[in-house]
User: Fold these one by one.
Assistant:
Number 1:
Amino acid sequence: MEQQENLLNKMVKEIAKENKFVNPKTTIFETVKNGYLGIPHKISIEETNKSGGKGKSLHLFLKSAPTGSRDVLPFRDAFLNEITMYEEVLPTFFKFQKEKGVKEPFESITKCYKSCSVENQELLIFDDLTKHNFLLWDKVVPMTKKSIEFVVKQSAKYHAVSFAIREQRFDVFNKLTSKLSLRAFHDFCKSSSILQTLVVNAQFALKCFDPRADEQIYNKFNHFLENDLKETALGNSGGNDVVIIHGDSWCNNFMFKFKDPNNPDDVEEMKFLDWQFSRLASPVIDLSYFFYCNGPQEAFDNLEHYMKLYHNTLGTSLKDMGTDVEKVFPYSTFKNHWRKYAKFGLAVACTLINIYYNPNHNEALNISELMESGSNFAETFANSEILDNQTYKKRMRGVVTHFVNNGFI
């Protein structure tokens, strides 16, 4: 612990020096935990003058890795993944876009000031987006049409860079992917405690349906739970049509800035957070995760609108970089991927939508502490009282019904 504190103090001093602070005063304090794989703190660097007055300031967000339960969960791999994304993959993407003269490039990430990959001291220090009027979406409220469209277009721009580099500079693409821990998400979900939690939450979702009144939907969803859920939840997708995905697209991993904070349709900017589970996969793994965990019923009813929006944006972005979308990811392939891989979105929605309305998760739980405490992980993470929440049941029924009616399961 002392080593980690010394390292952090050194890094913060370096940030202050690099930003030309004179007589900096540094404060590190705890903050609300919104993610499950990191320990969050906020850092304030303030410049003071001889008379005691305040000058400029810098506000940072620290995310450090848990040191416990590393024998069962891939905390180190997840943090190394995110460090690689910020230090190598994303800078390469930005440089490529600049070389190609892209008019509207993907740049929806926060600034990472420092990172550390020393074992048991892994951490990243970011710009604190809340100080720039960025907000998390309220997870109990499905996203609006405009906000979904905004994320879909930004996702398309991000995936486009990956497709273009893979097609034009395959050696560069391979070098980048070789540095990622591509199995971090797979290993996380394959942990017995996590996998059991996914199963329990899916069983709660099944209980949103009556075996007789909803016989067709109940039986098809039950068949999915018994035969496909565990493999689907691992998020695997092979083939040649893969990109470096974001990998963890629930609402707490995006922050939004609104022109009018009271109008959720008035999105000005957004930032992707938490690149810990970035890996090689179909773009549909990202899109289905985001769409089914965050969208309202109206979005599901208009799926083709969002698919076309994504593909049109992808095509425009690829054209700017000199790649033909019909060569790397035609719409017919996209639709085939959706039929094959979109059920990943259903698998994670069973747990995420439960989390949204489960009072146990008003603040993100500390997974490492739960593992070490010896308590029943699945029971803590999943609470049967969720079935008394009518909003949860309505959203869960909507997602499952959509999958059955469209023949996706």
Note: Strands lie at 24-30, 39-48, 54-64, 112-116, 123-127, 243-245, 254-258, 267-272, 279-281.
Number 2:
Amino acid sequence: MAATTAPGHAALRTAPPLIAAADLGYGGAPVLREVTLDLAPGERVALLGRSGAGKSTLLDAVWAALVAQGQRVALVPQDHGLVPQLSVLRNALMGRLDDHGALHNLATFVHPRRAERAAVAAILTEVGLAPEIDRPVGRLSGGQRQRTALARALYRGGDVLVADEPLSAVDPRQAGALADLLRDRFPTAIVALHDVGLARRWATRLVGLRQGRILFDRPVEAVDDAHVQALYAP
């Protein structure tokens, strides 16, 4: 996950970037143009910008590039990617489906092993969902579903966390505690956040997107109020 020099970066980076001068989009229609971005080990990158600025598109591209490199990536998509009919436990267990074969996974879903249940239960305690372990996800609130998706990512673990607005449905106190938990478990991460204050506190680097382009890519201490105002200006 070496990186190249980007605007505002203090460190010298020499290896090819994760994404280099790429147009990113869906179905041949670019959402982002001429994007260059990288993610070095130990960096926590927060993506900022209005709805529709291209944050989700960029995260999709970063996830694909990291997987292509052979990195183990924990993913939290904006739509959570949960199965409503399954319990919180079984949704969390899906974080490690690709670690095992079909028979092992089938046995796990029919009757989760004691050690697997205990591991998930410990994570659910950390995210405040322990009482809901056997409850179908479809009966949860929006904030509880979001925390289930976080629990699945934490159960998976990995080299990098890629998360799209993973804290948008929880209250500020919970968001701060969960951000600290993600920081401790995933030293390297790229996350879209709507809360600029939380992004400043959590991230080591801020990337601002506006109208299909990266407006700034700087260490958090180099982003001032003028940068943020330009990002969200009408």
Note: Residues 78 and 164 are 5 Å apart (CA to CA).
